[in-house]
Design brief:
469 residues; alpha+beta; Cytochrome p450; five-stranded mixed sheet; three-stranded antiparallel sheet; 12 strands; 11% strand; binds protoporphyrin IX containing FE; oxidoreductase; iron ion binding; monooxygenase activity
């Protein structure tokens, strides 16, 4: 449990941002040469939690050659993500691992180029365009649950991954066939597996070395490239404006009237698929896991869905009345934020919370730590979706709850993701209760995102059968 009773903590005095101190923030010493890298690699959630507990709102440590700090107070997070955001870029320690797949997409690009691309992509995630994706979300979920059989035990995480990939591919790029989606899924699996392995490694191995993981990674990247090139070529042939993200990217022209290069379109397409599908799948997987542990919450969810929808499928217009359903998703992301850590690198020397932070320092913010802080959340370890029923979201400090990050680089797909998770949850809850399998306990596994180790095994129990029982 995070208690934050260290000297630079507000629990013992004024808010950390007002405390003025000199030199390096306190923190673990670590080992010679490696610093805290082994502890960080062993269990990063535990490492961050302990850093915040022992050293307070700003803790410093060394990751081999890289100096790093962890910020655990909303005011300090605001300094990095908003007030002085120009001084912080996505950090190289992480991004060098994924450059080949993301390229110069929205997640990894910087400066004026990023701003231009963000402006271009934004309309795909706003207003009426966003609402149009609702039907795809519900239809794809309906297709998934129709395959489920009573008595079958299935991995809800795997189901969620396949579903959100299908939705992202269809909604954003109008991917035509299930075959396309399946191929994208396989290629992404190969790539993500190697990225996760690289993040666990305490040292850097150049891409050019022909290790089995590197070969699989290159193969996955190549397959993605070929698939995306085909989707782009097909769209070029038809020159159709499908109203999706791909059309926006392809029809965009710069000041000189030039279209975006094919390479750039490829980078944006792959970025959206990677950034969008696993995170949303995880929000759902953890939600189903928690619902399995809390039958009373599950019953309340089923009641709302039944009252609002009866037997008909949900639509985007139902979302304002599916309030509790949305709260369940928000609460699951509080306890298990898919993006459990957000990292930046300081470009120039600066000051955070009264401490000197030299250029090159990696700055971490951990939603995992922030979301479990008793200063902001009563009973922080408890799954209580009704905590969101009142004004909590408005009353919280700005960065106490931040599953989608914040500031100019806030997740561009946040509304898409909330809409998707709520519609999927409602569609499934209408038909099935997902009974957790107690013989297969779930452990959080922090990889690039916060995955459930070994999956979330459940038995879908039809709601009608339950009511009759
Ligand atoms: C529950 C689901 C999701 C979660 C928890 C999530 C979380 C995040 C977070 C924390 C960031 C900020 C990273 C940082 O500041 O370094 C981010 C950025 C981003 N997300 Fe999401 N995301 C989700 C869904 C989506 C979806 C559905 C899409 C697209 C279809 C998407 C696309 C992106 C992109 C492109 C960025 C980079 C934005 C930029 O830098 O301008 N995400 N996401």
């Amino acid at each position: 449990m995070v208690t934050h009773l260290s000297p630079n903590s507000p629990a013992g005095g004024p808010p950390a941002a007002q405390v003025r101190a000199a030199g390096r923030p306190p923190g673990p010493k670590g080992l010679p040469f490696l610093g805290s890298l082994p502890a960080f690699g062993r269990d990063v959630l535990d490492f961050f939690t302990e850093c915040a507990r022992q050293y307070g709102d700003i803790a410093s440590f060394q990751l081999a050659a890289w100096p790093a700090v962890l910020l655990s107070h909303p005011d300090l997070v605001e300094v990095v993500l908003i007030e002085n955001h120009q001084n912080f870029i996505k950090h190289r320690f992480f991004w060098r691992h994924v450059q080949a797949i993301f390229g110069q997409g929205l997640l990894t690009s910087e400066g004026e180029f990023w701003r231009h691309q963000r402006r271009l992509a934004a309309p795909a995630f706003a207003g009426s365009r966003l609402n149009r994706y609702g039907d795809t979300m519900v239809q794809s979920t309906d297709w998934m649950v129709r395959r489920w059989q009573p008595g079958q035990v299935l991995d809800a995480h795997r189901e969620a991954m396949a579903l959100t990939l299908q939705i992202a591919a269809k909604a954003l790029f109008n991917a035509e066939t299930d075959q396309d989606v399946a191929e994208i899924g396989q290629a992404l699996d190969e790539v993500m597996e190697e990225i996760a392995a690289r993040l666990r490694r305490p040292f850097w191995i150049p891409d050019a070395l022909p290790l089995p993981g590197h070969i699989r990674y290159r193969r996955g990247v190549q397959r993605m490239d070929q698939l995306v090139a085909r989707i782009i070529a097909e769209r070029c042939d038809t020159r159709e404006d499908c109203g999706d993200l791909l059309s926006l990217l392809m029809l965009a022209r710069d000041e000189a009237g030039q279209p975006m290069s094919e390479r750039q379109i490829r980078d944006e397409v792959i970025t959206m698929l990677l950034a969008g599908h696993e995170t949303t799948a995880l929000a759902l997987s953890w939600t189903w896991y928690l619902l399995g542990l809390h039958p009373a919450v599950d019953a309340q969810l089923a009641e709302e869905v039944h009252t609002v929808l009866g037997e008909r499928p949900p639509t985007v217009d139902d979302l304002p009345r599916l309030r509790f359903t949305g709260q369940v998703v928000s609460e699951a992301m509080r306890l298990y934020p898919p993006a459990y850590a957000i990292g930046r690198e300081a470009r120039a020397d600066c000051e955070i919370g009264g401490y000197a932070v030299p250029a090159g320092t990696i700055v971490y913010v951990s939603p995992w730590v922030m979301h479990r802080d008793p200063r902001w959340f009563d009973e922080p370890q408890a799954f209580r979706p009704d905590r969101w029923a009142g004004n909590l979201a408005k009353e919280l400090p700005r960065f106490a709850y931040m599953p989608f990050g914040g500031g100019p680089r806030i997740c561009i797909g946040n509304r898409f993701a909330m809409m998707e998770a709520t519609l999927i949850l409602a569609t499934v809850a209408q038909r099935f209760r997902l009974e957790g399998q107690t013989d297969r306990p779930v452990q959080p596994m922090p990889s690039i995102t916060l995955r459930p180790k070994g999956g979330v095994w459940v038995e879908p129990v039809p709601r009608s059968a339950r009511r009759l029982a």
